[in-house]
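re the bet — no i am not wrong, look at it urself. input seq straight from the record:
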Amino acid sequence: MAKSSSVPAYVRTPQSAYLSSLSVDRALAPYDLAGSIAHAEMLGAVGLLTPAETSTIVEGLRQIAREVRDRTFAWHDDLEDVHTNVEVRLTELVGPTGGKLHTGRSRNDQVALDERLYLRAAVQQITAALLDLEEALLVRATDELATPMPGYTHLQRAQPITVGHLLLAHFWRFDRDADRLFATVRRADTSPLGAGALAGSTLPIDPARVATRLGFEGPFENSLDAVSDRDPLVELLFDLALLAVHASGLAEEVVLFATKEFGFVERSPALGSGSSLMPQKRNPDAAELVRGQTGRVVGDLVALLVTLKGLPLAYDRDLQEDKPPVWDAVSTVRSSLAALRSVVEGITFDRTRIAEAADDPEMFATDLAEHLVARGVPFREAHETVSAHFLSTGGRLDPARVGEIAGVDPAVASSLNARSALARRVTPGGPGPAVLPHQLATARSRLATRRGSLSSLDRKVGLVEELLNEVRT
């Protein structure tokens, strides 16, 4: 006679090791347990569990939560996923009553719920790190608001800006990343629990009650879509991929500016390590790793998109592969943001070297053309006039010879320096000293708004711990 087992029959297959997702989805344990508690409470509220059964199941789930938190929970590799491990352990703790927990639900809607609860927490962690990086950028931008530097196009000196203006440019890129992450959470604010395997249930379950208990805006509209929808995870990966690209852009400038050729950033320990061979080296290792790991995050997005391409509704086992790229991207971006924040806080700008570069006369060619425009010359004609002067001088601009340019007031030569050029830039959003403080104030206000959004998200994320730790009176 075969030995009896509390393990559900559906996990005992010849391919059970291949089918197992436990090594990946055990990270969902807190969310699975919180969702199960909300589900059990709903079953009790609609009369599918007695009050005693509800209390027994909920306390058993909280006992499991304590074991998971204390790392005393015995994970069984022969049980293919987190859901089965929890259900088997619950039955060990409370007996056959534990088997009633799965009433009115499937692992299909269960994992979809777990992933949305995870997504909330992941966005909370990422945005907290992102806003800290933005804060560091604002602090450094304040310090360097008036420090002139060359602005670049095609990696060639173009027009004067300030270091503060450059740092604020990176702030605004990251601010858009924060906005996208919060928007992703808002679009994912729907509970899929109650959709069952794909067609709901014949039992009188109440999905709206579960949604409210878990802090969702509401339940799903279509059960077939609810168990299939991985849009929130794709959106999260896109958000993280673009965030990583933006982080890579900032890292690349740190790498460039730390070279001896630029010399704008001092090669200090804040950048990274030295060379194992060359005593004089100080390499920007942290920035290079941030730049290098961006490829992984972009790859994670592509991996999930390819997994989802062409899948029929509703649930398919392919969806088991939705978690590894998300886990990897979240972990990678979190560590990259922390590293980049440390770099931003620790770098030292060589103001003397930067100021010398900012006073390169060639960067005032556009100012000369606009000087002509202000005197009534059409811009295209002014552009050609200044360009012709450059060609005649071998691509050099000698302030002492600007009077030779037709229509140019020789007195303008005294204003061909970075600080004068910046003072003339009064366009909103530009690098001029008259407008930069307004941009900085707007950035600070925006950061405060984002922190308010994060605080609201913190409260929703905290619902999981509240459910796991709540003591009924």
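see?? The longest strand covers residues 156-162. told u. also The CA atoms of residues 150 and 210 lie 57 Å apart. so pay up
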